[in-house]
Structure prediction request, 448 residues.
Amino acid sequence: MAVTSSSDRGSWNSKLGFIMAAAGSAVGLGNIWGFPTKVATEGGAAYLIIYLLCTFLIGFPVMVAELSIGRRSGKNPVGAFKALSDSKFFPFVGLWGVICGVMILSFYTVIAGWAFGYAFEEIFYYFGWDTLAQLLTDTGHGPKNAVIAAVFMFGTIKIISGGVSDGIEKATKTMMPMLIGIIVIMIGYVLTQDGASEGVKEYLLPDFSKINASLIFSAMGQAFFSLSLGMGALITYGSYLNKKENIPQAAAFVTLADVGIAFLAGLMIIPAMYVARNAGIEIFVGDQLASSTDLVFQILPALFHTIGGAMGLILGVVFFLLLSIAALTSTISLLEVPVSYAIDEYGLERKKAAWYIGLGILAVSVAVSFNPSLIGTFDYVFNNLGLPIGGLLICVFVGYVWKTDSAIAEMENGFIGIKQTLFAKVWPFFIKVICPAVILYNIVSNFL
Ligand code: PHE
Prediction:
């Protein structure tokens, strides 16, 4: 097996740096685009409640498991399963994670590219450069999609090439506070506009009759995607984690940051829909809310245009930059997974690994750019199904192969006395029984 130089592998400089990076991975299009639009179209506050349950009861325990595997092994997802057991099967689970990461990244950059393009669309619209503005609103325009996806991928590669602390940690430490600042300012603006209160009601008053198997499946998939679970992103990030750090506590911070920002994004976008309706923009198709892509890429820009003037310009640019920043901190973690795999398992130098793999994935992104309808299929296979399956197998691994006692022993580093806590009694039961049962039930009931 190849030897990895420690400079290529790297480690986090500080606890805050790790939390920002992991929260950056978690907070992405899933929070600001996916979550609010799913809440809006799939059941309002009822969806929110199920999503929160999935996050805390299923997602959080799995996150602790992934971080423990990562830190104990000090390896990428494939190497980690090899290092912690003799099983021939589980390294393939790691490989499945790497594949899911690669495929998710291939379409993620295209959607991120739409968002980034819209930031410029707002500027061109303001100056009356209509042809250019219209080009950027065309989500089906292959060459345009491919060029912006490439810009996005180059940015991601550049950051990954810089290494763990000088690249990923530095970049996310600057971007995450910016992102939070922007959301808070946008909420402040939206909530003071006419019509917003109706959106707030829709968001926060639950209608329990809307809860059914498909809503639960969707909310669970959303929780996995949003927390970056099930594909080894957090195994990888955990492998750069110092033994001094408290894993359950770090996971709790990351989970809270992810949920908190998803919640805030909902508080910004759902009321904004109703502000748009108040301004005469159609947000319903029949009696259904418009689809998720339309909500963010048509209705919101229409709202910014209706507001008009400098205010419309600033809000539009800032909103789409927000979306782009959130996406970038996630694409970094998606690319880091196959890159760490190549560094650990094939001894590739970090810079080379980042460029080769990044450009390889870009080739798939170009195909997606010209056929955006692939996004739905990829999303279903590698995200909705792929991540929960990965999460299920990670639970089985930690529960029955590596054993939860070994994981708790690893967590004792940075959390002395963990064995006496309630956490140490409850978490193993979740990993062995509750999480796999719920995930499996969900996957099966979705097929039935
Ligand atoms: N969590 C990211 C989001 O919410 C997406 C992601 C999934 C990133 C899996 C890394 C791994 O957008």
Observations:
- The pocket of phenylalanine is lined by residues 25-26, 28-31, 104, 225-226, 228, 231, 233, 330, 333-334 (CB under 6 Å).
- The beta strands are 284-285, 288-289.
- The longest strand covers residues 284-285.
